[in-house]
């Protein structure tokens, strides 16, 4: 049974090349490595409309433990089909980028990596004058908000899918474990011992899609590393205290049944943000992986909301 479900490529068992697959989807795609100002080699991908000039640029940031080469691709492929040039990079310690797997000792440096890569794309002549947007899933949503704080007027808006603006109490270890881990992290930050439930299982609703997600050859399967968890706690507490300083247009999307990131924190972001243009969608019964892990019908609902929001902000822009 397991062998019959083996996926040789992110799109399935088909032997066609990646290039042929993209062509069949009416997009063109490329991949390369970008060396960040701190000298880190980061794997990047782009997905562009094949037959029309792009209407806008979307800079995408994946979540913890994920990467841009497997199921994540379904969203930028769709956005490229809708006319948007999409760009993403594997974060430090993720996917094909440099760094110890799933070790993120300093999120601020990761924010700098993303910011510099996105700006290098913006400066290309073929994209001059196009509106640019941020898109982030989970931890990527938090990184998008930090990029916004770094350059408050640099982007026309942000799409935040189940953003990690605070670690949900439902996945935090209970006392006294956090206190013990904080102490140990000072001496052994790379130690992968933080006790958490399998995030794939908690994120993805459809059983068949859990199998597909689990087939990702680049997925990190170990326990979270101490230093990464401490850093995510630090950053999300910081973000949670700065929600009222968010000023860019945004749409925040969250499932009511999400136990990885808290939909109430997204509600708090919506209420607190000083943005004049802000929207929120809480999807009844949906889980953390809104754009892959849900039924195809649910994924299409979320996609339609994203494209509708983008279309309204790209007209004449």
Automatic annotation (TrEMBL):
Domain named Serine aminopeptidase S33: residues: 53-294
Transmembrane intervals: none
Pfam families, A to Z: Hydrolase_4
Coiled coil: none
Domain of life where this protein originates: Eukaryota
Protein name: Serine aminopeptidase S33 domain-containing protein
Native source species: Macleaya cordata (Five-seeded plume-poppy)
């Amino acid at each position: 049974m397991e062998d019959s479900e083996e996926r040789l490529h992110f799109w399935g068992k088909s032997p066609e090349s990646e290039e042929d697959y993209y062509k069949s989807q009416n997009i063109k795609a490329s991949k390369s490595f970008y060396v960040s100002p701190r000298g880190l080699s980061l794997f990047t991908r782009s997905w562009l409309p094949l037959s029309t000039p792009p209407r806008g640029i979307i800079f995408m940031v994946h979540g913890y433990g994920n990467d841009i080469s497997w199921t994540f691709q379904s969203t930028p492929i769709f956005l490229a089909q809708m006319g948007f040039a999409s760009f993403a990079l594997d974060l430090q310690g993720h996917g094909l980028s440099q760094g110890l797997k799933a070790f993120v000792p300093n999120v601020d440096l990761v924010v700098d990596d993303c910011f510099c890569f996105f700006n290098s794309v913006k400066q290309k002549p073929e994209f001059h004058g196009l509106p640019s947007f941020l898109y982030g899933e989970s931890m990527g949503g938090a990184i998008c908000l930090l990029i916004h704080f770094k350059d408050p007027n640099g982007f026309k808006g942000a799409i935040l899918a189940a953003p990690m603006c605070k670690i949900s109490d439902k996945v935090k270890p209970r006392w006294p474990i956090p206190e013990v881990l904080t102490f140990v992290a000072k001496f052994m930050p790379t130690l992968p011992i933080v006790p958490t439930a399998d995030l794939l299982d908690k994120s993805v609703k459809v059983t068949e899609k859990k199998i597909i997600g689990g087939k990702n050859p680049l997925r990190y399967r170990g326990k979270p590393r101490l230093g990464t968890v401490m850093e995510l706690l630090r950053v999300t507490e910081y973000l949670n205290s700065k929600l009222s300083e968010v000023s860019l247009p945004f749409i925040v999307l969250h499932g009511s049944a999400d136990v990885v990131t808290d939909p109430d924190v997204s509600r708090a972001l919506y209420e607190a943000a000083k943005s004049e243009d802000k929207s929120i969608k809480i999807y009844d019964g949906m889980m953390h992986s809104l754009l892959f892990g849900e039924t195809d019908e649910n994924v299409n609902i979320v996609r339609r909301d994203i494209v509708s929001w983008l279309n309204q902000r790209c007209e004449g822009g």
